[in-house]
Amino acid sequence: MTNNAADHHPGNSVAEGSHEGDFGCSLVDLRTLMELRSGEAVARINDTYGGVQNICKRLKTSPVEGLSGNPADLEKRRQVFGQNFIPPKKAKTFLQLVWEALQDVTTDHPGNCSHNLPGPGEAQAGWIEGAAILFSVIIEKQFRGLQSRIEQEQKFTVMPQGAVIQIPVAEIVVGDIAQIKYGDLLPSDGILIQGNDLKIDESSLTGESDHVRNQKLTVNICSPWLMFSLPLGASFPWLGTHVMEGSGRMLVTAVGINSQTGIIFTLLGAGEGEEEKKVKKGKKAGAPENRNKAKTQDGVALEIQPLKSQEGCLLRGSGASLQVPLASHLSPPLGLIMSAITVIILVLYFVIDTFAVQRRPWLAECTPIYIQYFVKFFIIGVTVLVVAVPEGLPLAVTISLAYSVKKMMKDNNLVRHLDACETMGNATAICSDKTGTLTMNRMTVVQAYVGDTHYRQIPDPEAILPKVLDLIVNSVAINSAYTSKILPPEKEGGLPRQVGNKTECSLLGFVLDLKQDYQAVRNEVPEEKLYKVYTFNSVRKSMSTVLKNSDGSFRMYSKGASEIILRKCTKILDKNGDLRVFKVKDRDEMVKKVIEPMACQGLRTICLAFRDFPADAEPNWDSENEIMSDLACITVVGIEDPVRPEVPEAILKCQRAGITVRMVTGDNINTARAIATKCGILLPGEDFLCLEGKEFNRLIRNEKGEVEQEQLDKVWPKLRVLARSSPTDKHTLVKGIIDSTVGERRQVVAVTGDGTNDGPALKKADVGFAMGIAGTDVAKEASDIILTDDNFTSIVKAVMWGRNVYDSISKFLQFQLTVNVVAVIVAFTGACITQDSPLKAVQMLWVNLIMDTFASLALATEPPSESLLLRRPYGRNKPLISRTMMKNILGHAVYQLTIIFTLLFAGERFFDIDSGRNAPLHSPPSEHYTIVFNTFVMMQLFNEINARKIHGERNVFDAIFRNPIFCTVVLGTFAAQILIVEFGGKPFSSSGLTLSQWLWCIFIGVGELLWGQLICSVPTSHLKFLKEAGHGTTKEDIPEEDLPEDMDEIDHAEMELRRGQILWFRGLNRIQTQMDVVYTFQTGASSLQGALRRQPSIVSQHHDVKHVSSPTHVALSSVNSTPTTSAAAAAASPTLMPHGRLPF
């Protein structure tokens, strides 16, 4: 376990070359060593190499200082031992895919030819389908960028030249000394050369849930996903294990395809052809431009590959889950029935008219003409079917998710599972950590209790006795991770940089404030001299380090939560620096006078203690309860972690949006309550619960210790703060909220976590957020979204984007279904009456392109706005098509059908042109039908602008220029329509139009905007006959108490009507009040009481106005104020409006 720094190789200056002989171990030697098991491995290390120290020498590295960082040396190691990434399975070439497609029996069958014959003009439109496919490929590249970002985010800590830095896992080379710590996923094979209280989760290999811990005087072997610690031996297993506890250093011995994980993936087909390309690879692998070309890196291979498959499943699954209610109820029955009826009516009408009414005989020479008519009828039927199917919905989902994910990266949300993007929009509860998420994670010691004195600020070093000062310095310097450091500021005048654990950094800063040097102590006591380390975990809530003195005695330094450490203290340092007895009553008094005042100020309290063990008998270090007792308290410090300035506003937005924020922290309950109050989680006068973990478990568990959902349902609705909680408590709370049947709909829960033990809660939650800075690799692997800045405000942005995804899809549906309804009815009715579809097949394909590809691109890329946070979350089964959307769809369909049928049957008289109805077969395009087609497209273009608002908002141009994609699509479609009409000719069945005709077409299209304003004026609640569509088996509405009466969705028309009624009644009431006042002055004070009695009604009307108008910032009373005081204040100024404005 202990290694002497003097034994390491003095340097590593490897000359350039390509011979493995430059190193004392070849690639084959190391691979062979990695394949051995148990005693054989240890015997090989000792017999062949002379121990781990000699392996370091052969690999020309230092177990203490690592590699030199020389670029030539790193390049050499990559050439000899390989790069640390596992290439994906070789993809098939384009020609191979073409050849396989040609082998498909469905393309060989002669009968298929008849179904693929192009109709009139269809051959010229073949580019549309190909362009749509290419566009889909471009969209797919969005997810490639996501995967590349995740790969680049995966980093690991190594020690070149003794410095501790983080590098991408792809840059790790054989010979690197890697630091491993709690929560790490191991990125390469290696040998553990130093460890502190290491515990490894190997359940994925052995099936046993017990963690394997390293033992003294054993050789420890690490693999990319598992590290074993076995007496006198080790094995080299693989796949998905991680460090559960402790820390250490590891010598990297195999990377990439030569690691145990790489060998397995090679057997599965990854990296085929690598051996054949080894020579070429050796020349190019180390080039800087090639470093980032790794498709899948070792260490994240198993994290990324499931992501790829999940993306594929998600795109299909999301499309399916969104499409099934519509496609199954609208597309196949309606589209297929309408198409079949169209063909049947056309055929019957033609046959009856030709052979029964006109009594024409069937002539053999006329058979080809009749067949052409029947083919024409069939094409019209297919056209009706095509426009009836909203097949653009999956593309809209894909674009919306891809666009949102890309933009969320800029908002510090790295999405790992795409479904989490939309799910977050429906979140009803967020269980958030405190440290780093709600606070700045910039910890500083601001108070201290030393020698019976409570210092309200950092004491002067002269005020502390030298022997006590030495105890403080040694305790902090030694009993902290040596990776925690205070570095000089990057910019002059800036704050010192905190590297590592922030709590430990605050204690190190405390030492520096006392004008002491912690690094000198660490140089005197290097990490190798630490005899025993009890690392911090969620169970201990403390850390202890044991040193062996020269006389054989031992000293243990401990630090941890103040109430936990003080409970184990029996002595304390007095003002003279001597130990005195520390009784229970002394502890209670200290808690009351020191710890609770600190905690109430939002300070985290940490206690430092020590214990000496005699040299006569070595204690049993595995008996922690005995070791962690009889401690002597040195000091208690109060650590400040300021609330992020933007967090209170973010939590207020969540509360407005119907999301309950709960704080789940391991801190003292008083500290948690103070921080929660500053954040706005706890509000004055609110009936909330603030519990500690023990009390929480007592309330929800029965006599057998089992969680009872019924008991939990009584606790969680009012719970706002859970302090002194364990990861198990967090998982229990999350599971209980999700499984609860309280309320009409299931809660959608988001959870933040950073530790390894937070994994179960992150997995159980509907959306798990891992901390990108403070989070462990295990937490990130279990999460759905990674917060790259560890900031709560980023969660609020995720909510906005999630709701925006839902609204974007709804906007697209509103637009597409309007086009569907109109196009189907026009094609069906027109074909049945005129024996020809007013919209030709190629024109329908163009319309289909507009309403599918272009519309999904334009409407699915709308940026989110703050107004999304002004509504309650939708339920899981909330219909995609709300009643307001149904009103818009039917309302615009009525306008468009009226215009189209008017132009179809009377347009030739209005424009004084020849009629296009009943034209003979293969007749040239007519102006009449071109005007019908052009007007139809113009109405769709302007209706696309209407579709930007789905809740009845009047201003459809609001923030339109924030979405350049929308503007580009609309203007580009308009320009393309001009070209099609003027130059499309016979392929597009169009004829050039005059300027006057163009202006009329545009004018009718603009009428869509005016008609939309008329539709917005009709309250949805008055249209009782409208039904929702696209919902699941159960309907979940917005809670009635949170909306105006009888409203189950946002309806701005209804809100405007209510606002008008309220203002009207307010006006009448004020006039009556003023008349009473005038009458009072004329006749006396008898009527004054009547005027005053009407004041409460004014107050209630004022509250009604606040209820329906957009929320305003409300000044909250202080914590000490009571509801009675607030009511009195309201009564004193009943007509005062928000922001101090008068109501007149």
Automatic annotation (TrEMBL):
It comes from the Eukaryota. Its EC number is 7.2.2.10. The keyword Signal does not apply. Keywords: ATP-binding, Calcium, Calcium transport, Calmodulin-binding, Cell membrane, Ion transport, Magnesium, Membrane, Metal-binding, Nucleotide-binding, Phosphoprotein, Translocase, Transmembrane, Transmembrane helix, Transport. It is a multi-pass membrane protein. CDD domains: P-type_ATPase_Ca_PMCA-like (cd02081). It is found in: Cell membrane; Membrane. PANTHER family: CATION TRANSPORTING ATPASE (PTHR24093), PLASMA MEMBRANE CALCIUM-TRANSPORTING ATPASE 4 (PTHR24093:SF435). Belongs to the cation transport ATPase (P-type) (TC 3.A.3) family. Type IIB subfamily. This is Calcium-transporting ATPase. The gene is ATP2B4.
